[in-house]
Specification:
Chain lengths: 249, 356
């Protein structure tokens, strides 16, 4: 008897992600949710520019690769043209909260009926470890070699808090995949986000706190500790917006 | 069939609708806003979607999404907005997606002005964004032709999986003429089996992508795309010749200036100067062959442009500099008068009259 296998929604390809990176876990959670909701056949995913640029190889639904930051606009076009499809983007912090801020905010305020999986690891991974809009104060990166300084680089953006102020946002939750209970909560959040889309409730986003051992210069285990010690205090976990909460218990 | 009086911008919008376009994503900018306004009024009534995006950048990416979903989709803008869309146009082309992009040009560079111009010729014909690609570029010079070419643009886009640009100018966008808006002819086109409609368990997944990390693979894709452009040049090139058979001087002009050229030509001919007009209707592919043939029989070319001289480069390339090519330029939103063009004709005529 098979007790553990890959979700049907995840391809047999070997992920290119670095050892200890949590993208693999987050991909799997999305795959499990697509399987459980039985929406793989009508799903279209939008890959970002960033470490997940080749996500089109890993999800088994129809996929498109978008320009840096533009995934929510591409998703908008896909969804408007085919409202019965299930459309999601999978984006990192630079993609979503720097170059793509306008697309993120406006797809949310329009209540665009799409789901965004937002992977926040506080750094630009693919380009080799530069400051992200979500890098923490004092965090050393390739482009903040003396640590991020609020006076010169400003403050990190809290995306869920920001988007929760917008009427069009139906659901915004921040989760973390640093431990097993966290992973279970993350999956529940992702499932809820996709469910809201199928119920046409509007814009849904799940922000997943994630690690980048390679560019943080830490071992995978130490990276999980760094996430807990540094990211959780600034990025509190929880539900920031839940429009459908009353109906869904 | 009854003729109706339509503004150029509205004719683009209605022609697109008759061609089956039900999706429009735009951002306001003068002098093309009537296209968007018309779509905003009509599309919701016929089951379509009009969406005003937060920027031209977002608009073109929404176009990419809708095109990837397999529907007929259009956006329109004017010069500064096309600069912003150019990133997306590069991705659209790299993904081999069909869409129609309208540019009703205004004076530049920078914010420039809002009066008619043709100074985006290089941007339109050379691709505008980064990378090895082209758009098919159609340049109408009257409102009926706007209708016909807008419809054709959708067929060309779907047939070849390319972006097609309608390159107009503020004159064409704003002027009114009577047009016949008859039923749009249906063309046999390949099925969109590449579209992202959801696999529904009936096929493997489709991927729309412009990323190829293997240089050999990317080179192969670009070679294939340029084979397609060669095929387009062979079969889709359009042009008009006016009184060129005996012409010593051939004016080369497209869009609004080509109309003013005809006026100047008739005045010059009344004065005994043999002058004609060559009007490219497709700017990409440029009608090179036909212009090269004209170089055998004519003495001199004048490129008449509302820009400092951009198309003139294509005229020189097409004719391989076998004949002198000068430019009669107006820029910044200034439109040629017939006298401006007549002066340029008479100057050239005086040059070779001395030689005879």
């Amino acid at each position: 008897m098979v007790v553990f296998e890959k979700p049907k929604s995840i391809s047999p390809d070997i992920f290119h992600y670095c050892p200890g990176c949590t993208h693999g876990i987050i991909h799997r959670l999305v795959g499990e949710v697509l399987d459980e909701l039985d929406v793989l056949g009508k799903s279209v995913g939008v890959a970002p520019v960033g470490c997940a640029v080749m996500a089109y190889n890993y999800f088994e639904c129809d996929m498109i690769q978008a320009a840096h930051g533009r995934a929510p606009a591409v998703a908008t076009g896909l969804k408007r043209a085919n409202p019965d499809s299930v459309v999601f983007t999978y984006q990192g912090d630079g993609d979503l909260a720097a170059i793509g801020t306008a697309e993120t905010v406006h797809s949310a305020t329009r209540g665009e009926n799409i789901t965004i999986i937002f992977v926040n690891n506080a750094i630009y991974g693919m380009t080799g470890g530069q400051m992200a809009p979500t890098s923490l104060l004092g965090q050393v990166t390739q482009t903040t070699p003396y640590g991020r300084n609020a006076e010169t680089e400003g403050h990190p953006i809290r995306v869920c808090e920001l988007l929760s102020t917008l009427e069009g946002t139906a659901y915004a939750e921040r989760v973390s995949v640093d431990n097993v209970p966290g992973i279970k909560k993350a999956k529940a959040a992702i499932k809820k986000a996709f469910t809201y889309q199928t119920q046409k409730k509007g814009f849904s986003i799940v922000e997943v706190l994630s690690t980048c051992p390679t560019n943080w210069g830490l071992s995978p285990v130490a990276a999980l500790d760094w996430l807990r010690d540094n990211m959780l205090p600034y990025y509190p976990l929880g539900v920031y917006k839940d429009k459908g909460g009353e109906n869904n218990g | 069939m009854e003729k109706i009086l339509m503004k150029g911008n509205e004719a683009i919008a209605e022609a697109a609708i008759t061609a089956g376009c039900r999706y429009f994503f735009g951002y306001p900018i003068t002098p093309q806003t009537e296209v968007a306004a018309y779509m905003a009024k009509r599309l919701p009534k016929i089951g379509g979607t009009y969406l005003q995006a937060e920027s031209e950048i977002a608009a073109i990416n929404m176009v990419i999404g809708a095109a990837a979903a397999g529907v007929r989709v259009m956006t329109s803008s004017s010069s500064p907005g096309i600069s912003l869309k150019s990133e997306g146009i590069s991705y659209l082309s790299g993904c081999d997606l069909p869409a129609v992009i309208v540019n009703i040009q205004r004076g530049g560079p920078g914010l420039g002005g809002i009066q008619p111009s043709q100074s985006d010729y290089f941007q339109a014909t050379r691709g505008s964004g980064h990378g090895d690609y082209h758009l098919i570029v159609l340049a109408p010079n009257n409102i009926q032709e706007i209708v016909n070419l807008t419809r054709k643009a959708f067929d060309l886009a779907d047939k070849y999986r390319v972006g097609v640009m309608i390159l107009g100018d503020g004159v064409l966008g704003q002027m009114m003429e009577p047009v016949i808006m008859d039923e749009c002819p249906k063309t046999e086109l390949p099925p969109k089996d590449w579209a992202l409609t959801g696999a529904k368990g009936a096929r493997g997944k489709n991927i729309v992508n412009s990323l190829y990390l293997d240089p050999e693979e990317l080179q192969r894709r670009n070679f294939e795309r340029f084979d397609k452009y060669a095929e387009i040049a062979k079969t889709e090139t359009l042009f008009e010749k006016y009184k060129t058979d005996d012409a010593d001087i051939v004016l080369v002009a497209y869009g609004a200036p080509s109309r003013i050229c005809k006026n100047a030509i008739n005045t010059a001919r009344a004065k005994g100067i043999k002058v004609g007009l060559f009007r490219p209707i497709t700017l990409y592919p440029f009608p090179k062959q036909e212009l090269a043939e004209l170089a055998l029989s004519t003495r001199v070319f004048i490129s008449v442009e509302m820009s400092m001289g951009q198309m003139v480069d294509d005229v020189r390339l097409a004719t391989e500099c076998r004949r002198p090519v000068s430019v009669c330029a107006r820029t910044g939103g200034v439109i040629h008068t017939p006298e401006n063009i007549l002066d340029a004709i008479e100057k050239e005529a005086a040059n070779f009259r001395g030689v005879i």
